[in-house]
Amino acid sequence: MFNDIGPLELVTIVVLAVLVFGPDKLPKVIQDVTRTIRKIREFSESAKHDIRSELGPEFKDFEFEDLNPKTFIRKQLDNDDLGLKEIRNGFDLKKEMAEVTDAVNSRDSEASSSSSPSSSAPSSGGRIDMAKKPETPGDDDRPPFDADAT
After folding, report:
1. To the nearest 10°, the Cα dihedral for 134, 139, 141, 143?
2. Contact, 51 vs 60, CB < 8 A?
3. Beta carbons of 55 and 62 less than 8 angstroms apart
């Protein structure tokens, strides 16, 4: 319950409790606090039981911790009924990118080999020069402007 309270913080709370309530009343205050915490836990468990009974037998194994999104996602990823591990393992981004790069490089090399040797553009070995501005098509190649489409 108090996982994030260190020993120094605990000593500080005890000293403050002794100073505020005094050594005579401190045991009674601790009993009252523990009794209140116990009643809250009983009320919470009773409410959980009532909700489970109202949901019906199909939600018999329902856990309220599953309502936390992190817990729900972790539980669903551990459950392999959907085949998520196969999908995750079957998708290799590096391999896909290498295939795309090879396809682009082979298309560029085919285009450069099919162009005439009198072309003014120097061949870059299938690479794309990012510093060079792309060629703009002439006014004849532009599609017609449609005012209703915008």
Report:
1. 110
2. no
3. yes
- Give the C-alpha separation, 125 to 111, whole Å: 11
Tokens representing residue 50 in the block: 């009532």
Identity of the residue numbered 36: T
Q: Coil, helix or strand for 124?
A: coil
Residue with tokens 């489409």: 149
Q: What is the pLDDT of residues 73-120, one digit of tens each?
A: 777 777 665 566 666 667 777 888 888 888 888 876 666 665 545 444
Report how far residue 118's alpha carbon sits from residue 13's, in angstroms, rounded to the nearest whole number. 87
List the one residue out of 84, 80, 52, 53 whose CA is nearest residue 66.
52
